[in-house]
Design goal:
alpha/beta, Rossmann fold, Dihydrodipicolinate Reductase, domain 2, 3 domains, ten-stranded mixed sheet, 16 strands, binds L-homoserine, NAD(P)-bd_dom_sf, threonine biosynthesis, NADP
Length: about 425
């Protein structure tokens, strides 16, 4: 049988990795897929030919629309990233009756509802395993492996660059900007690295995870997003002293009131496996009612780990080429007409424990006043640490860990605390999760 002809948009880090994996493992891939898979047409503005296998078998153009309009191409792999022209290219490929494989989390999180509707109407598949957690097959696990379960929550380290930065800050005391530059050089970071450090990339991925976990439409605009740029070396150190690690976590949970979707720095007890996921590695925990807690771990970024997910999607598409569109796995795990309109909770309705760091005057009664305000809001304190003032200093650093509290109440308490004359500057708050089963 003739190999399936694939069009590849992008020959950068992941595009090059995808071409290489497909060429290097061609024989085993053909045995798995039942047919050979060959990239016949690629589009790229700039690429390094010395890094890419199989270029002699491809026509390379700088016009991506030429690839999506190529009548010979059956599957388009979109690896150029960003919203535009990726969206137009994907919609054009779908309109042309081609299946699409993409690693573009921004595109899926923002425009996935429209793209999936177009794909369903045209009877083609859009596969996006590489969009979440790089090489970890978390979409497949959630959509297929756990499909017997009512998912209760999912929480993950889903940005490799951010995890790399936090790990280097903790282990080597390295400077934030210095580690970010290294992540960029290694090809982990987004084209705009603020997407990594401000949590936007993780929020894209969390939005997708939440939809697949709970069968809700993609709602990126409702995902609470906070990055790691406010984290200081001293917070990493204090968290350590308290027996915690700071990780940038995406959390989605189904509660009686609705669905939480949030991305923020999080203290996790160091005894938790996920607290020990370091460097560019990602990990996602999923708790299902039947299976209990499960954990998925692997490289979250990089050329070949991401290519691993891209190529697996291509193989899945090839295996399903002859199947009825109705009998394929639904894009968002639940049948398209069975998605639910569960409300998404605002951050003020979320309950978490909190780490607080504040600079306070070194005077009698300050701690008692702060504790009194917490008592007024029924906020229970789990641990307190006061750092000794330096020689001649009149203020001290106070670290507190609270029990779980409704965010609205914590906001009100912090407003009163920050208004005290004896509290200097804003209070640093980092939410904490036990991730208990
Ligand atoms: N910039 C992303 C990360 C790449 O660091 O995780 C993988 O999505």
């Amino acid at each position: 049988m003739e190999p399936v002809k694939v069009g590849l948009l992008g020959l950068g880090t992941v595009g090059g990795g995808t071409a290489n994996v497909l060429a290097r493992n061609a024989e085993e891939i053909a045995r798995r897929a039942g047919r050979g898979i060959r990239i016949t047409h690629a589009a790229a503005r700039e690429y390094d030919p010395s890094r890419i296998l199989g270029l002699d078998q491809m026509k390379v153009t700088d016009d991506a629309f030429e690839v999506v309009n190529d009548p010979e191409v059956e599957i388009v792999i979109e690896l150029i990233g960003g919203y535009s022209p990726a969206k137009e290219l994907v919609l054009q490929a779908i309109a042309n009756g081609k299946h699409v494989v993409t690693a573009n989390k921004a595109l899926i999180a923002l425009h996935g509802n429209e793209i999936f509707a177009a794909a369903q109407a045209r009877g083609v598949t859009v596969a996006f395993e590489a969009a979440v957690a790089g090489g970890i097959p978390i979409i497949k696990a959630l959509r297929e492996g756990l499909s017997a379960n009512r998912i209760q929550w999912a929480a993950g380290i889903i940005n490799g660059t951010g995890n790399f930065i936090l790990t280097e800050m903790r282990n080597k005391g390295r400077d934030f900007d210095d580690v970010l530059a290294e992540a960029q050089a290694l090809g982990y970071a987004e084209a705009d690295p603020t997407f990594d450090v401000e949590g936007i990339d993780a929020a894209h991925k969390l939005t997708i995870l939440a939809s697949i976990a709970f069968g809700i439409p993609l709602q990126f605009d409702k995902t609470y997003t906070e990055g790691i740029t406010r984290i200081e070396q001293q917070d990493v150190t204090y968290a350590n002293e308290l027996g915690y690690r700071i990780k940038h976590l995406g959390v989605t949970r189904k509660t009686e009131k609705g669905v939480e979707m949030r991305v923020h720095p999080t203290l996790i007890p160091e005894r938790c496996l996920i607290a020990n996921v370091d460097g560019v590695m990602n990990a996602v925990m999923v708790k299902g009612d039947a299976v209990g807690p499960t954990l998925y771990y692997g490289a979250g970024a990089g050329a070949e780990p991401t290519a691993s997910a891209v190529v697996a999607d291509v193989i899945d598409v090839v295996r399903a080429l002859t199947s009825d569109p109705e009998n394929r796995v639904p894009h968002l795990a639940f049948q398209a007409d069975e998605l639910s309109d569960l409300p998404i909770l605002g951050m003020e309705d979320v309950v978490t424990a909190c780490y607080l760091r504040m600079q306070v005057a070194d005077k009698p009664g300050v701690m008692a006043t702060i504790a009194g305000i917490f008592a007024d809001f029924d906020i229970s304190i789990e641990a307190i640490k006061q750092k000794e003032p330096g020689e001649g200093e009149t203020e001290v650093t106070l670290i507190m860990l609270t029990h779980r509290v409704l965010e609205r109440k914590m906001n009100q308490a912090l407003e009163r605390i920050e208004a005290l004359e004896t509290v200097h500057g804003p209070v640093m708050r980092i939410r904490a999760e036990a991730l208990a089963s």
